[in-house]
Amino acid sequence: MAAEARVDFSGVLCGRATWKEGIPVYAKEGVKALEEWLSKEGVKNINAVNDSIKSAKPWYAKMDAPVPV
Q: Using alpha carbons only, what angle is made at residue 10 by residues 7 and 11, rounded to the nearest 5 degrees?
């Protein structure tokens, strides 16, 4: 949404949103099923986030600060 609105942004906070749907899989089917879910759906979710933030700019670039090491 921020990219579509041409807002100057640095990224997103989305940790739980990328893996929370795997919790019922783990509860019903165990660790192996969760690992499989993460390797497919979890990766798909992270890739979708990465695609959506391609126009983000690092915070340090906005402040003319050196690149953090």
A: 105
